[in-house]
Amino acid sequence: MNAMNGLTQLHFSDLWHVMAPEMILVIGGFLILVLDLFMSKESSRRLSPQLGILFLIAAFVLTIRNFGIVADNAAAGGDMINLSNMLYVLDDFGNVFKLLFTAGTAVVLLMSIDFFKHNLEVKVAEYTYLMLFATVGAMVMASALDLITLFVGLELLSISSYVLVAMRRNHAKSTEGAMKYLVIGSVASAMALYGMSFLYGVTGQTNLAMGASTMLQLWDQFKPVLVLGFLLMLVGFGVKVALVPFHQWAPDTYEGAGNPVTSFLAVVSKAAGFALILRVFLWGFSRVFGDIYIYLVILAALTMVIGNVAALTQKNIKRLLAYSSVAQAGYLLIPLATLGKGSSIDNIWLSLGQTVFYLVAYLFMTMGAFAVLTVVTRQAGNETLEAFRGLWRRSPFLAVSMAVFTLSMAGMPLTAGFVGKFYIFLGTINTEMYWLGGLLFATSAIAFYYYFGVLKAIFLKDSSVETHEKIQVPASIGVTIAIGLIGTIVLGVYPDAMMKLLNGLHWFGQ
Amino acid sequence: MVQNAWLIPLFPLVAYLLLFVLGRRAQEGIVTGISVLAALAGFIVSLLILSDVNANGAQAPYVFHWLTVGQHSLSMGYEVTPLNAMMLTVVTFISTLVLLFSKGYMHGDERYSVFYQYLNLFIFSMLGLVISPNLLQVYMFWELVGLCSFLLVGFWYFKPEAAAAAKKAFIVTRIGDVGLFIGIVLIYVATGTFEYSGVFEAFQAKKFAIDWITPDHLITLIGILVFIGAIGKSAQFPLHTWLPDAMEGPTPVSALIHAATMVAAGVYLVARAFPIFEASPDTLTVIGIIGGITAIFAALIGLTQNDIKRVVAYSTVSQLGYMVMALGVSAYTASTFHLMTHAFFKALLFLASGSVIHAIHHNQDLRKMGGLWKKLPLTGWTFLVGALALSGIPPFAGFWSKDEILLGAYNSGHYVLFTLALIAAFCTAFYIFRVFFMTFTGEFRGEKDVYDHAHESGPVMAIPLVLLSIMAIVVGFLNSPLMNNAFEHFLFKGGEEIGNVYEANWGMAGLATLVALLGIGLAYLMYKKQSIKPENLANGALRPLYQLSLNKFYVDELYHYVIVKPVVWIGHILNFIDKWIVDGIVHLFGEGTLIGSLGLKYSQNGQVQTYGLVTLVGAVLLIGFAMYAVGGVK
């Protein structure tokens, strides 16, 4: 094998061994694409999402299988399972994120079934296979170790997402959102690629595993160039996960996209962005973290403060959730930033655990909130806070669910959101970055204010509401909400099982 | 059966949630039905558990892992010991009756359903506290109990006295809670665990992770801090002042607070965590003295009060003093036994007083009662049973348990405490029969109209009274030589004996009975035969003493001038600083935040060019800062 070449002959069995979930989704996507040509329009509309969910479940199961493979390999003391000289790897870091992506996308498709019924202009088969391809892109972002492959994954996710946002063709806001996302997203991609080129220029490697040691040797000599490369990548990735000040596309795009697509962007796409950030920065920069963590701290602080403050005056509920999702990105950046004060291997595992725990909690509460939002705003005919007024009388189930989700986002004890935030907070205490932990708490306090606005609208008696019509909840939406509720409360009341699971992972294959 | 103990607190919790969902407009019958059924189900499960424990003894707690943070791990769970099996049974039994009784008492109240919600939550909290296997969980439920009592005492919040009483109850018990909290934190720091078993082991081994204090002193310090919590909750001197005021709540609440929940929590905690206190003789002495003082102090105040509920309230304080004193002299069995018997006859006395108050249009002033025996025969009989039990006349329940406490105090050599307790017993018998004679005998001293309309209030109020009367008569036999001290054998089933146990002493029993009879006799002479005029005593030679007792030894006034007033003054000063300085800063932040938010809104102008520009400027600033920092740009 020629290490410099990086390309070796691959057999199908090797591929299947390492990337079975990705492959099954690609197969599924193409199958839906082909079937659509042969089926009647009605049956395609009906079957495509169901097929999509089926393939996602298959990918989910195959990912679970992969945990076993990684554990066996680690027990046997083998090297990291990889393809083509560490171009693509199989480890629990990737596996955890793949579970998150497949589960998240499956729930999005479940919500979409109802979305299709009310948006007849959306082409269901296209929508479905684009979702699957976007998920594959996300998976690549979590599992590749080569900058070029990572970038391809990023683009696969991004381009699919641009189209998904634009799917409601008769909707001016949808087109507008997609266009803005495309323009800013392209700027981001360009910056990230530019940053990567600096890394390649200095180390002569696109592979993170190979390049990291070279970079460590050359760090002092080429510090400005390498930091520049790091920052450009950070900006590029920062746009994807909507860090302030690279977040401005988010509210417009979130507002324009259909609710399931918005929740996909908020959960799956954002989680993929964090997978990419963690993968690149942990593999490439973990030993020089002391020099670069300050930029992460600055962005985390800015994002928490501005995301939460901007949410205060929002009247549109989707924009409110968009800003809240911006703020969450700030919280999520903290575990990585704390590594600057000590990037021992234990701290890295702890940070990964914190990030993933919060992402899982975030998945449940955000999916649930968007599902509630879908039904409520449709009935009210608008997307403002007014739509939630007196919800308690119209549908106690939706009201209580929404209360649980918003309280969880705000960080109320006994919900998943609290445990997640608390876990991250402990990380800041652990590394003695007290003021960052303090800021986390202070901005959460601001968050309580606007979430209470939602709660107030839901529960307060108000005679000005004309409609007391009961709200009917479609089955697929009801199931989504139930999943969100169960997840939010179980993780909030009994987080230990999940933390134990995370602590037992072989994050990077060892 | 023991593994199902978690069901017991679950029932009232479910009832609470159901009522909450049904809302305040739910029908009274349904509300009561749900609540009583839930409490009854809890009672039945408690009985099953009681028989299981009786057969198999104490079992290991059921603990599940809750949260691991770094090296610290917290767990939650439940446990069943003979002591808490007894408590569960008593609490659920009395709760069932109180819930039933409230149907009559609260009938027609606008917030009927809310009242039941609070009651259910209250019962849930108390049951949760009782089955907690660790101190952290105890503390959570402890606070919840406090919160519920606040809500219930202030239930009629539109009455200023009720609102003030609720506030007082909350604040005064909070003082105790601070002690408890510090105590628990110290325990955790010193032993690394919250679990009773682990803490007890550490206390026995005297191995602690704290080195700034010797182990013996630490044990005393922790014991006293935890005991301060019990002082607040169980209304011991000097934090007893909230309990009599808490009478402002509806009477069923008083019955619950005084008999089964709230105040019992303090004594229960000291009993459950007894090894912590037992490890330090100094702590025990403090506990004994505080208990003794409370017992005599409250009994003296009870002599002169004119509000029927207040007298009963001071009798609770006094009886709690007995229990605490008993623990202080290591008469563990006597104390827990008195906790149980007292629960029954005190609930009985309260519900009977409630029945009286209800019958004469919510009047509580003894001076406007009298001659009600003919009108309220059932209430009269049951009150008499309660009064006899409280006075300690054989064979009623209070006789057996109080006798054991006196015996424990005497045999442990604390003769001063013994004497105090004996005098308190005399006062107890006197004041409760003073109430009895003033209420049920003689002429009615209120308006004639009210008297004519007075009548018994139907089965929902009568059944609890009768059931409690039966219990107040029979429950004392459980630990009598006649039943071979069954309670004591039950209490130590499957575990070690705790504290001292003494053989029954008939001489002591005779002495206690004699003292009680003297008290009753004096009350009879003064308030029935009127051969000694009470007014003559009050205005004659004993006037200063009378005033002292009537005004509750001026403790409230003392607190008002020594603590409340200065604090209020400090408050005024702080308020000034707060209003003009802190508020200004806060306003600055608040306004600033809002203005900032608006500003952000305008920068979000919908132009994608702006977004691109902001992104770029952000990137450039970041890179510029970085280049300056790493020295790339000179």
Automatic annotation (TrEMBL), chain B:
Keywords: Membrane, Transmembrane, Transmembrane helix, Ubiquinone. One of its GO terms (molecular function) is NADH dehydrogenase (ubiquinone) activity. One of its GO terms (cellular component) is plasma membrane. Residues 66-116 form the NADH-Ubiquinone oxidoreductase (complex I) chain 5 N-terminal domain. Its main location: membrane. It is found in: Cell membrane; Membrane. The keyword Lipoprotein does not apply. It is a multi-pass membrane protein. The chain crosses the membrane at residues 6-23, 30-50, 83-102, 114-133, 139-158, 170-190, 210-232, 253-271, 283-304, 311-333, 339-360, 381-401, 413-437, 458-478, 506-527, 611-631. Residues 132-426 form the NADH:quinone oxidoreductase/Mrp antiporter transmembrane domain. GO terms for biological process: ATP synthesis coupled electron transport; electron transport coupled proton transport. Belongs to the CPA3 antiporters (TC 2.A.63) subunit A family. This is NADH:ubiquinone oxidoreductase subunit L.
